[in-house]
Amino acid sequence: MEKLRFPKKPLLQRLKLIIKLRSALMTSFSAKLILFILIFLFDINLVLSKEYASEIFFKIRTETNSEAKSIGSYSKGCLAGAEYLPNHSLHYEALKPSRNRFWGHPNLISYIKNTSKEVFETHGNGLILGDLSMPRGGPMPYGHKSHQTGLDVDIFYERKPDLAMNRFELETFKPRSVLSPNQREINEDLWSDYHYDLLKIATKDDRVTRIFVNPLIKKELCVMAEEKNDMDWLKKMRPWAGHYNHFHVRLSCPKNSELCINQADVNNSSGCGSELDFWMKKDKLFESNSTKIRKWMLLSDLPKSCRKISME
Length: 312
Ligand SMILES: [Zn+2]
Hints:
By secondary structure, the chain is of the alpha+beta class. It has one domain: Muramoyl-pentapeptide Carboxypeptidase, domain 2 (2-Layer Sandwich), CATH 3.30.1380.10. It is built from ten helices and ten strands. The strands form three sheets. Strands 4-6-7-10-8-9 form a six-stranded mixed β-sheet, covered by helices on one side. A hairpin with a 2-residue loop joins strand 1 and strand 2. The radius of gyration is 30 Å and the shape is globular. The N and C termini lie far apart (97 Å). The relative contact order is 0.15. Bound molecules: zinc ion (ZN). The site of zinc ion (ZN) has 5 residues, from strand 7.
């Protein structure tokens, strides 16, 4: 008897093939899913185990008890043995005490006290101050790129009121810009010889290496200094984006801070020539957002001693 040919066989084979393919696909999908979950967990683990310097330094509320030393560079460093600046004085008010950024190398604290005293004695008003550094310096989670070694301070152009400011005023005071509302020129209603003198007094201390001002302010200083035939002091005044309601004073490395890294010295010219043209472009007048760089800086990116300082 002739064997019957069942058409089922190819169908069965096809079915088997489909089942095989499906399970192969399922396996591969499951494998991919498992792999994806593993990679995800691995990434999370990596993120969690990273030591972000800004988070570490931000949480430390007190200074170290060691000798005062500035370590590293202005934008990648830390500070040992900081001194704190009281919020009030006859000669100044320091804004936003809640930020805990009123710490500095003793050189900076003495600079602030001397300079504000001189302004008070010369002009009859004190200063309004912004941030110095955190208790052990280091990168900040928001705000400044530098201010990491206790050698930088922001000083507002506004005069200190005669009466001491209360805590609420210190936290909420909004210093005015000295630029016009369209931010293309100096606001002549606000700007005066006082500001010229203020900046000149601020540069007098030999420890000052640079003062950053908005390029429009540097330009105004150049015009005024030329009229007064008084160009010598201008070389330390450096144009930099932003800095229209405050100027930023930077001191050079203290003598006993062996690990402190100075910036190159400013050259001897007043900086009032063609160099200033570069800064007059609109995108150079106002700050770029470089917060991310300092926020995600790792503890291992800082000088080695900063790890020790963060753990003392
Ligand atoms: Zn500053």
